[in-house]
Every structure is written in structure tokens, then in C-alpha cells.
Write a structure and sequence with these properties.
Blueprint (H helix, E strand, L loop, with lengths): L3 E4 L2 E4 L4 E7 L8 E7 L6 E7 L4 E4 L7 E6 L4 E6 L8 E9 L8 H5 L7 E2 L3 E6 L1
Parallel strand pairs: 2-11
Antiparallel strand pairs: 1-3, 3-8, 4-5, 4-9, 5-6, 7-8, 9-10, 9-11
Length: about 130
């Protein structure tokens, strides 16, 4: 079992930045993928970014490429999501996830880590609101 606790959400104007943190109860960086997902009201949970082996492999949704950066601090068992140039469309509850699929280097990892059903452990979520 892994407990995940997110922090860092809040309200910001468009163009601003936030950094989300996710503290894990144990080290997962060397075993499974971790990721960030988000869910807006009335929409499905979507994959935002994922990471494996402290950045050896990363995934970003097209909508956040160039604006968001996922990273891990293995010593602190903490996952981060740096979000820059925020847009109103980024408004959602953001969830940290662990226990995700490892890369098989067969071209399927991006598709697998973008699916919420492929992660075993979830945080409670943190709200991000971006106003125009």
C-alpha cells in the first residue's frame, strides 16, 4: 500500500504558476510509474503527466506540453508538478497517482500511463482554479 497526499493547489490568474507536491508514504520511484491526473466537473479523469525512474521516462498530455514539468525527489519520496502559463482550461481537481505501469519500450507506455485505470494508488486531490 502507498498513501499519497497532495498539496499546492489554489487559485491563480491566467498566465500564473503553481507547483503541486505529492508526498508518498514509501519509495515508489524505482518500482512503478507515478503520475498526475486531473478531473474537471462533468469530465472524465485525464492523464496530465507521468514519470518513471526519476525522469528516465516522462509523458505529457499534448495540452500541457511545454507548460508543465513533472519531477521526483527520491530522497523525499515526493512527486512534483510545476505548472506554468496556466490557462482557465487547466481548472480541475488534480490527483497524484502511483503504482502505474513500467515502460516496456515497445511504444505503448504513453498510452498506458495516460489511463487512470492503470494506476493502483491515488491521493485525495487538490483543487486548481485558473481565472481569466
Amino acid at each position: 500500500q502507498v498513501q499519497l497526499v497532495e498539496s499546492g493547489g489554489g487559485s491563480v490568474q491566467a498566465g500564473g504558476s503553481l507547483r503541486l507536491s505529492c508526498a508518498a508514504s514509501r519509495d515508489t520511484a524505482n518500482s512503478d510509474s507515478m503520475g498526475w491526473f486531473r478531473q474537471a466537473p462533468g469530465k472524465e479523469r485525464e492523464g496530465v503527466a507521468a514519470i518513471y525512474a526519476i525522469g528516465r521516462d516522462t509523458y505529457y498530455a499534448d495540452s500541457v506540453k511545454g507548460r508543465f514539468t513533472i519531477s521526483q525527489d527520491n530522497a523525499k519520496n515526493t512527486l512534483y508538478l510545476q505548472m506554468n502559463s496556466l490557462e482557465p482550461e487547466d481548472t480541475a481537481t488534480y490527483y497524484c497517482a502511483a503504482g502505474g505501469p513500467r515502460p516496456l519500450y515497445d511504444g505503448t507506455w504513453n498510452a498506458r500511463v495516460s489511463q487512470a485505470g492503470n494506476f493502483r494508488y491515488w491521493g485525495q486531490g487538490t483543487q486548481v482554479t485558473v481565472s481569466s
